[in-house]
Amino acid sequence: MKKFGLLAFITATLLFTGCSQKTVEMDSTPADSESALNTVETTNNSIAQDNMAADGKGNYFIVDGKKEFIESIYFAFDKFNLTEEQRKVASENASKLKGLAGSVKVEGNCDEWGTDEYNYALGLKRAKVVKDALISDGISSNSITVVSFGESNPVCSDKTQECWSKNRRAEYKPLP
User: Fold this and answer.
1) Closest to 166 in 3D by CA, of 149, 154, 175
2) Is 26 a domain residue?
3) DSSP-based three-state secondary structure for 145
């Protein structure tokens, strides 16, 4: 009976103990009203740009003062290589990004199939192959960062092949 109670306690502890929460750090330095207004305007512009590309098809970048749409790269199930069609998209993206003053982050994403660890690794491979394509098209490797979200950043949550294919992607995000 003691074993059952101990086992029940351990099980309950494991079930009700979640992952630790991330803490958000905020800058506590005071800002004057003009710089605060500029920050709000910049944030609003960023949010507007993010909303325009919230479907996962791509993101907007400001390159040489011009707004450029950079398409996402899509992958086949369980693959991280670029097809000929996706290689062309990557080349077009690179040509648009050549005048970018800041850096670019390439985010690798996966569908919900596979373990978290596997999808994280696959997302990283997808981001890396897109980075390699950018480098081969003349973008400096120092201006490219890669990150994997695995399956944690879906743009579609339906349980269909079409939806899963939208989640198997690499997205470009502007960095200052």
Assistant:
1) 154
2) no
3) strand
Report the distance separating Cα 170 and Cα 131, nearest Å.
10
- The answer to whether the predicted template modeling score (pTM) of the entire model surpasses 0.85 is no
- Among the listed residues 90, 68, 171, the one whose alpha carbon sits nearest the alpha carbon of residue 134: 90
72 lies in some domain? yes
Q: What digits encode the pLDDT tens for the residues 30-58?
A: 444 344 334 333 433 443 344 344 456 77
46 CB neighbour count, 10 Å cutoff = 12
Q: Which domain holds residue 151?
A: 44-175
CA 171 to chain centroid:
6
Could you identify the residue written with the tokens 């800002």? 31
Domain count, the chain: 1
Contacts for 138 with CB less than 8 Å, ≥ 6 apart: 94, 98
Residue 165 burial (10 A CB sphere; 0-12, 13-18, 19+): middle
The CATH number of whichever domain residue 99 belongs to comes to: 3.30.1330.60
Sign of CA dihedral 134, 64, 47, 155: negative
Residue 88, pLDDT score: 96
Strands 144-150 and 103-109: parallel
Using pLDDT thresholds of 50, 70 and 90, give the confidence band for residue 75.
very high
Inside any domain, residue 20: no
